[in-house]
Design goal:
This protein has one helix and six strands. A hairpin with a 6-residue loop joins β5 and β6. The longest helix is centred in the N-terminal third of the chain and has 17 residues, at 3-19. It has 107 residues and is an alpha+beta fold. 16% of the residues lie in helices and 40% in strands. The radius of gyration is 14 Å and the shape is globular.
């Protein structure tokens, strides 16, 4: 791990401590802390309007136990929201994996 990655890891862990959310992988007992970043998804040619779609980027430390179980199509949830993974952003140089998700409130 490079000195820059070590510094980023310290900052990421501090962010998790302050604003991390406990998520779980549906259908398993896996749970982990993550940073959730809501965003407006791009409108595709035949997609539903943006007003009816919600999305989030979920940032999880690469070395989190069990994280390799998450794949495209997996459902992650907290107490109020569920999201389906649509894309996984993975770079060997990054300390975190980024899961792009479509979100929906749990009712």
């Amino acid at each position: 791990m490079t000195p820059v990655q070590k510094a980023r890891l310290i900052g990421f862990k501090a962010s998790l401590a302050q604003r991390g959310i406990l998520l779980s992988l549906e259908g398993t007992e896996l749970s982990f802390n993550a940073l959730v970043q809501p965003f407006v998804p791009d409108a595709g040619e035949f997609s539903v309007s943006n007003e009816t779609r919600n999305a989030a980027r979920i940032h999880v430390l690469r070395d989190s136990p069990g994280i390799e179980q998450i794949a495209v199509g997996s459902v992650l949830a907290d107490s109020a929201t569920a999201c389906r993974v649509t894309h996984i952003e993975d770079s060997p140089a990054n300390i975190a994996l980024i899961f792009h998700c479509e979100t929906a409130p749990l009712e």
